[in-house]
Amino acid sequence: MFSAVCLASGLMVLVVLGLILISTSHEAMPVFRQEGLGFLTSSQWDIPGNHFGALAFIYGTLVASVIALIIAVPISLGLALFLTELAPRKLRTPVVFLIDLLAAIPSVVYGLWGILVFAPWLGGRSFMTAGIILAIMITPIVTSISKEVFATVPRDQKEAAWGLGATRFEMIRGAVFPYSRNGLVGAVMLGLGRAMGETIAVALVIGSVPAIRAQLFEPGDAMAAVIANQFGEASGTHRAALIGLGVVLFLMTVIINILARTVTGRADRRLSGAKR
Amino acid sequence: MTTTFPDRSFGARTPQDAKLLRRRRLVNAAFSGLVYACGAIAAVPLVAIVYYVLKKGAGVMSLDFLTKDVPILTRSIGPGMGPAIVGTLLITGVATLMAVPLGILAAVYLNEYGKKNRLATVIRTMSDVMTGVPSIVMGLFIFTIWVLRFKQSGFAGSLALACLMLPVVIRSAEEILRLVPAGLREASLALGASRARTILTVVLPAAIPGITSGALLAVARASGETAPLLFTIGASRTKNLNIFFGANTALSTQIFRNATQPFPGAQARAWGAALTLIVLVVLLTILARLVTKRFSVPLR
């Protein structure tokens, strides 16, 4: 009896995930039917003309996320190395506290600060503004996963490097990095998934102009952001198109998450194999 | 032809060695400097954000701000955010009532019944994947499955938040359950208690402090969410205590809507709401820490 209740609760996860896919793609059907594959390949988002192509938003999401990764990954790896290899015990607690606080600040507060303080300072709303804000927001998660990954490096490998007379940098390059490569790829991918799904802060600072251009300091738009900004006034095919964007975003983030977990999962297996 | 025998750890014997050693030390020092710099760089945005929220938020903070209704005209200057505070607490509270029990039961299934069988592995992986589902997608999901039939309400927002919290609760609860020593279970089973009784009277009580702390962190996270509430709770400028009927409001959605207004009064209210929200989130986080510290003794 009790076990059945527990099992049912566990199955809820699968039920909810399944329902998300079914329910949202059902409501998005009108636009998928109307545009076909053009929904993904056309960059024309014409609300009065009833024509919806998502390419500009997909482009914006990828550009902002890649900017975020380029900034956040080196800093996060530095923070993780600082916490696992370099920091004296006294400095560790305040840095952990700092990262926890960064993670605790709600997305909308990043957005508020971004639109009223940071964007004017940087020269307006743009891909770059969104990318930098996203970088701040994903730093905590990439740092904490990298930290866990670095912590799995066996002590004897590090000591072997020390024993050969390696400097700290040489020890990290020769013992820590090679051992953590897969785990770090996973950490970066989870950061990417997080950045792509981040909505509110991006909605406020990216500029809301659907455009495919290489100028990173010009305004653009992103998938999650346009849903947040336009959904309130949308109806008919326009609303279906926004829900369709949600379906595409859902599939992209789920695939990235599954890939990330397979990569790290493989690393885990290798690690547990190495112990024996 | 001379063979040099590099003595890497101590004093160099040849000029080349000395040069190499100097270079290696230099690279190492530069590397350490970079790593320390990362800590400093990460602190900059945090300090900037906290500084602005405190400075601008404290300017409008007052008892009126915390209790009065949101003004009819967005351009007017003055308080308040009362309905949004009530809305945030109500919506997050109801979400917690749904997600936490369900999450704990699911974690019990994973750790006590399913363990490593195929179904449990699938649920565990999918639950991890579910933590990566964007919050806006949860909002769309509840819109399509609930709001289209039953209209916008606080409860619709609670449903969306509960979906976001569920995998987080499952994950943290399972980790805590794993820490409960097997000896406790075996002792209870040996005394003739059933599996269910063992879990309810021995395993869960031992794990409850850790589970509470994990759940509080999930609640703190959820209370700041905006995207899942945006199209599920509607908009209201007065208190709505009926969670099942009528539009509601929350601090996060108020910040989002006021942030894009050109009026100083609206922007000031957004900063005030941001300060209120951050204080709420930080209080919950500290509470979670205290619970962990205070009760973490029994599990070694």
Helix content of chain A: over 70%
How far from one another are the termini of chain B?
A: 64 Å
Q: Give the low-confidence spans of chain B.
A: none
Shape of chain B: flat
Q: Give the H and E element order of chain B.
A: HHHHHHHHHHH
Percent strand of chain A: under 5%
Alpha-carbon Rg of chain A, integer: 22 Å
Radius of gyration of chain B: 27 Å
Reading the helices and strands of chain A in chain order gives HHEEHHHHHHHHH
Class derived from helix and strand content of chain B: mainly alpha
Q: What oligomeric assembly is this protein in?
A: heterodimer
What name does CATH use for the topology of chain A? MetI-like fold
Give me the number of helical elements of chain A.
11
Number of strands of chain B: 0
| Full CATH superfamily name of chain A | MetI-like
Q: Which CATH first-tier class of chain A would you pick?
A: Mainly Alpha
CATH architecture of chain A: Orthogonal Bundle
How would you describe the overall organization of this protein?
The complex is a heterodimer of chains A (276) and B (300). Chain A has 276 residues and is an all-alpha fold. Chain A has helices spanning 2-35, 38-41, 55-86, 89-104, 107-122, 127-151, 155-163, 168-197, 200-205, 223-230, 236-275, and strands at residues 45-46, 51-52. Chain A has eleven helices and two strands. Chain A is globular and about 70 Å long. Chain B starts with 14 loop residues before the first helix and ends in a 5-residue tail after the last helix. At the A-B interface, helix 1, helix 3, helix 4, helix 5 and helix 8 of A face helix 1, helix 3, helix 4, helix 5 and helix 6 of B.
Structural topology:
The complex is a heterodimer of chains A (276) and B (300).
Chain A: H1 2-35, H2 38-41, E1 45-46, E2 51-52, H3 55-86, H4 89-104, H5 107-122, H6 127-151, H7 155-163, H8 168-197, H9 200-205, H10 223-230, H11 236-275
Antiparallel strand pairs in A: 1-2
Chain B: H1 15-60, H2 63-67, H3 82-114, H4 118-131, H5 135-150, H6 154-179, H7 182-190, H8 195-223, H9 227-230, H10 251-259, H11 264-295
Helix pairs in contact in B: 1-11, 3-6, 3-8, 3-10, 4-6, 5-6, 6-8, 7-8, 8-11, 10-11
